[in-house]
Fold this sequence. Notes:
By secondary structure, the chain is α/β, with parallel strands linked by helices. Helices cover about 30% and strands about 15% of the residues. The radius of gyration is 20 Å and the shape is globular.
Amino acid sequence: MLKTVRLLSLAVVTAASLIANAAAKRPNILFMLTDDQRWDALGIAGNPHLQTPNMDRLGKEGVYFKNTFCTTSLCSPSRASILSGVYAHTHGVQNNFTEYPANFRSFPMQLQSAGYDTAYFGKWHMGENNDQPRPGFNWFVTHKGQGKYFDTEWNINGAGSKVIPGYYTHIVTEMAEEWLKRDHGGKPWLLMVGHKAPHSFYFPEPKYSNSFDHVWIPYPESAFRLSDKPLWLQDRIHTWHGIYGPLFEWRKVFPDSRPEAVKDFANMTRAYWGTLRSVDDSVGRFYELLKQRGELDNTIIVHMGDNGLLNGEHGMVDKRTMHEASIRIPLLVRYPGLTRKFTANPG
C-alpha cells in the first residue's frame, strides 16, 4: 500500500507551529506551486529524460515525498485545500470558477496575523475573472484566468492591469525576486509563487522548445486497453479529455497506431517537459538569491504541484479523475533542522 502524505494538514500545522514559537527566530517560507506537474515530471522521481537539478536539490538537501496525493484533481479546489488544509466539500471551492471564501481562514492569513510579511505572485485561479488582491497578503500580483505563457496581462497589487512582455515563468520569478529584496522591516516573510507551467496549452520558451526532439515517447500501455473499462471512460476518449480528442493544442489526431498520432502525442509531451525546464531554472534562481542574502537555511522551501495529470493513461489526457496519475503530485521540502531527521527515509 502506498504511504500517503497528508498534505492538506501540512500548511496549517506549519503555520500553527510558527505562531506558537513567535518568541524564537521564525523562519521565512518560500512556497512554489506548479500547475499540472505530474509526480514523475522531475529528475529525482526517476524521469530518464527530464532533468530538474534545482528541484532535485531541494529533495536531496531536505525531504522528497515519494507518495503525495491531492484529494481533488482540479486546479482551484486543490489550491483552496492547500491554503485551508481541508477538503473541497468544506471550503466550498468545487470548480474552477469559485472564489476562495474571503472569511475562510488560510495559512497565509494566519501568518499575516502573526506578523509575517506576506506576498503572492502568479496564477491564483480562484475567481476566473478577478485579478484583485486577496485576503492574507500584503502584496498580491496575479492575472485573470490562466494567464498566457507569453505577454500576460498582470494586475500588480490592485493598481490595474498591464501587459508585461516576456515569458511567464521568468516574469513571475523576476517580480517575486524584486519583492524579496525589499526591506521587510525585520519581519519574517511568506512568499508564494504560482507558476502557470506546465499547464496546457504547452509553450516552452524558445531555448527549450527542442530539448526533447531526440526522445521517442510512445503512448502508455494502458492507452488503448479500454474494452473492459466502464462505458463513460470509453466515451471520454473522443472528448477534450481523451487521446482521440484534440490532444490539447496538437491538431493532427489520428487513430491509435498511425505514426502521425504517435508523433503528435510525443510532441505534446516534449512541450510539456520543456515548460518545466524553465520552472527548474526559477527554483535555482530563488535558491541562489536566498543563499546570497544569507537566508537560505532560515527559509522553509516548499515545491509542489496542485494536481497530477493523465498523459495517455487509460485513454485520457487532462486530470479530474481519481486515477493515480491524476492525483499523485510532487512534493519537496527543504529546511535544515526540520527535515534533517527524515532524509534517511524520504518516503
